[in-house]
Design brief:
Two copies of one chain form a homodimer. With 196 residues, chain A is mainly α. Chain A is built from ten helices and no strands. At the A-B interface, helix 7, helix 8, helix 9 and helix 10 of A face helix 7, helix 8, helix 9 and helix 10 of B.
């Protein structure tokens, strides 16, 4: 693995464990097994690393979801519901392995680091756009007259997932997050089903 | 206002602006207009202040919601829906004035400060319990056979609200959070309405 990727992976792990401010460049270097000189060869400062980490995290998520089995589902409604099933199944193990870098960073940087805030926003919306495409297709096929907008619904799915992470972390139990996504799935199912 | 309350209010404001780690005891003292000696008279350290701030925040929320107009509503389903309406109406103005201290702190402290994590969990659940009571009453009256548990549904409302804060902060626009709560309200409405 190249030095830059090692640094980005270390940043992902550390920031998801203890947040952006508590994570130091020294720790990132130690965790990555990389010298500080090497760090500053790749990044002018911690903020620049955080911006690259947001892109890195998002690219990883793109990869993961692009190759997920649910993507092969031809029915768009099933695709949406199986997406939520996958997010629910991912609520397990160690928190830094499955929680969201973007939602974590934005909580503590949205005022003090506008560039990080904007990067988190862009990447959350980039992921929501994929969900919105499936939602738009499912809406057109099953509930064309439903009162909601696919983009707004897609953003809501991301809010529910982010909030599920928070409740799970607070209770120190990933299953609390999984249960939240059962509710999200039920909402989507009712909204994508024509009333009798 | 007494010194302790000034310190707690300053902590609420600062932590909701830039997070727990980035907020220093010096800044809290400056913001509160209180000497450092006075701080350490009341609190042994920043963590102790954070624990007290979690309780303080929660007591303020109790006050706010106990006296809210929706509490006078005799129909429990209307009480639940008007609770969400109130949470949605509160999504406006400056983020540190309406976002959640608990959800913000837990993101960056859940591993490094177990006592803060536990306090955030306890206070989030304390608030959810009020919602769960109304949900249980509404379920018993309107949808006794619904497959969901009121406690689980109440926790989900809190997850949706926490996630709404994150998306709103990321987009630097409280209305993004308000729109998320429109979805939460629609979910609750469908789940509290007997099928025809």
């Amino acid at each position: 693995m190249d030095t830059k990727t090692k640094l980005l992976d270390a940043a992902l792990r550390l920031i998801r464990t203890k947040g952006y401010t508590a994570t130091t460049v020294d720790e990132i270097c130690r965790d990555a097994g990389v010298s500080k000189g090497s760090f500053f060869h790749h990044f002018p400062d911690k903020e620049a690393l955080a911006l690259a980490a947001a892109k890195h995290f998002s690219a990883r998520a793109d990869e993961l979801f692009a190759s997920a089995p649910y993507r092969a589902e031809s029915d768009p409604r099933a695709r949406v519901l199986r997406y939520v099933d996958q997010r629910r199944a991912m609520m397990r193990g160690d928190f830094p392995d499955f929680t969201c870098l973007l939602g974590t960073m934005v909580q503590e940087t949205y005022v003090t680091h506008p560039a990080i805030r904007a990067a988190c926003d862009a990447e959350i919306r980039h992921h929501a756009d994929d969900v919105a495409r499936d939602l738009a297709e499912a809406k057109a096929r099953y509930v064309p007259d439903a009162p909601w907008d696919p983009q707004s619904m897609a953003l809501y799915t991301q809010a529910a997932i982010q909030g599920a992470f928070i409740l799970a972390k607070a209770h120190d139990d990933p299953s609390v997050g999984a249960e939240c996504l059962t509710h999200l799935r039920r909402y989507l199912e009712t909204q994508l089903t024509p009333s009798a």
